[in-house]
Structure formats: C-alpha cells, structure tokens
Amino acid sequence: MRARLAAAARLGTLLLLAAALASPGTAFAGSPWGADYFPNVPLVNQDGVVVRFYDDLIKGKAVAVNLIYTHCTASCPLETAKMAQVQKLLGDRVGKDIFFYSISIDPKRDTPETLKTYMQRYHIGPGWQFLTGKEEDIKLVAQKLGLSSLTDAANRDGHQPSLMVGNEATGQWMRNSAVDNPRFLATTIGNFLGWTSDQPTRRYAELAVPPAVGKGAYVFNTRCSACHTIGSGDAVGPDLANLTKERDRAWVARYLTDPDKMLTEGDPIAKKLFAKYRGVRMPNLGLDQEEIAAILLHIEAQSRIAPAASKPSSSSTVRTVSPRG
C-alpha cells in the first residue's frame, strides 16, 4: 500500500513538472524565489525615479538583468552593445513581455544623469532601465540574483559579464553570458520564456553546409561586430572599411593592445575618437598579437568587397582606428 502511494505521489510530481514545462507561464506554487527571497530595496533609474527592486522591477515579470558601470574599460561596453542588439532583435517584446535592467556597481560615480548619457551613447530603446542606488543594496541584489562571485575582486572588470534571465512568476531562472552572440541570446531568451515564433522553420534537408570561418572573422564577429561594421556605416563606433589604408597599421595594433592607456596618455587620434563617438570607450579586450593580426587581415579582406570600399572616407582623420574604437 505504501509503495503504491509513493508511486502515485511520484507520478503526480512528474505530471505537475511536465505541465509546468509545457506551459512556461504557469506559476509554481510556493516558489522559493519570491517576495521572501528577493530584497525590496530602493533603486533609482536613469530618470531619477525611485523604484523598489521586487515590487516595481521583477514581481510577476520576465526580466533580464546584468551589472555594469559606465567608467568600465573591460567588458561593460561590449555587454551593453551586445544587449542593445538583443533588444533590437526582440523588438517590442522588450518593455512588454520582458524587461531589461542594468545595475551599476559604481553608484558613487554613476548618477542617474550619468546613466542616461551612457544609454544615449548605445542607442538604448524603451523597456530597458539603468539603475543605481546604495552600494550595500546593490551588493545584496547582485548576491540574490547570483550575479556576484568570489572571483569578482580578481576580475579586471570587478564582476563577471553575466546575464540573469528569469520569470519571477514561475520561479524559473537561468544564467547566460552577457557577451554571447546576440542572435543566440535572443533565441535562448525566447525559448526559455516559451514564446512562439511566426518565422517558418526549415527542414534539416534544406540546411546547407555553413561556410568556414577563419580566426579573424571569428574574433571580429564575437568581439567587434556589436559596435562596428566593415563598409555598412558607423554604428556605436566607426565603420572600419579601409582601416589599414587610412591609419598606420602599427598604431592600430598598439591601440588594440591597450586603448585606455593611449587615451589616458593623450594620444590625439584616441581623444578625437572618444569625443566623436560620444564618450564610448574602446575596451581592452585582452587580444594577443596573433588575434590582432588576424582581425586586421579580416578587415582588409572584407574592405575589398565592402560597399564603402570604393568610396573615399569623409572623416578619415578620426574615423578608422580599431575594431572597438
């Protein structure tokens, strides 16, 4: 009798789990990640509006949350640029079906006004708030979200470039890299939240063999394309078509190796780029000389076939400097 009851209980649990997975919008009763878990601390958004973390930002919502700070010279600019691409891919779902939040870990310098200026540099759309507050409150939120780590102090960025995606109503959460491929992230978020797509699916028989991707193309696509194009015009940073024709190759390699040092030392081209592109910092991506050489070869090859390759540069004195400048 006891064995039958235990088997029935296990079956009931499995059926409940299967129903929840089949319908992601179904809430898990008694989820441990609700009002009793998340702090309801006050934060301030880019417009100076005070909001409560639990009540106003995540309660009953699907959200994507990461940590940044505006003076970052490592991964934060790349995080923000890639998430801006994810926002474009998700379209009007952001602000309706999912809400984006970037929380500063440098609240002393990141005032609401500073955060708003930072958003404008990256062309951030509606449905995405940038937040600041008391340092102890931000640390608590980061800890509860699983965005803090014992290794943060050793990281040159002060934190890991992680993205926490969750649905507070169902208690389902997952961690991703905030610097992953934007199309992959957008698809992953949609699948996780159970969104249906109106795009026709292709059969396996129709799939072609993907083209081989060289090292330069891979590094450019994963590190540079969030802010730059090769022949399609300026984006967050400059169009890089004909880069090595318009700028000394050794200078470009040096800038890619340590861009922040060159800006701090007052390099005139670095300063002009920083001013022209609204204070967006070229992050130090930790590229080695082999990776830099591969990127430059890729840019040169693409420049020969890019639409802008045959056009003279209209701002060559400051335009082409690096795959992140």
Helix- and strand-based class? alpha/beta
Strands across the major sheet, in which order? 2-1-5-4-3-6-7
Strand content: 5-15%
Give the overall silhouette.
Answer: globular
* Sheet with the most strands, sense and barrel status: 7 strands, mixed
Distance between the termini: 71 Å
Which runs of at least 5 residues are low in confidence (pLDDT < 50)? 5-29, 308-325
Task: Tell me briefly what this model is.
This protein is of the alpha/beta class and about 325 residues long. The chain contains twelve helices and seven strands. Helices cover about 40% and strands about 10% of the residues.
Write up what this structure looks like:
There is one protein chain. The protein has 325 residues and is an alpha/beta fold. Helix content is 39%, strand content 11%. The protein has helices at 2-22, 53-58, 76-90, 112-121, 135-145, 182-192, 215-224, 243-246, 249-257, 259-264, 268-276, 289-303, and strands spanning 42-45, 50-52, 62-68, 99-104, 128-132, 162-167, 172-177. The chain has a 7-stranded mixed beta sheet with strand order 2-1-5-4-3-6-7, with helices on both faces. The longest helix is centred in the N-terminal third of the chain and has 21 residues, at 2-22. The model is unreliable at 5-29 and 308-325 (pLDDT under 50).
Furnish the topology, listing elements before pairings:
Elements: H1 2-22, E1 42-45, E2 50-52, H2 53-58, E3 62-68, H3 76-90, E4 99-104, H4 112-121, E5 128-132, H5 135-145, E6 162-167, E7 172-177, H6 182-192, H7 215-224, H8 243-246, H9 249-257, H10 259-264, H11 268-276, H12 289-303
Parallel strand pairs: 3-4, 4-5
Antiparallel strand pairs: 1-2, 1-5, 3-6, 6-7
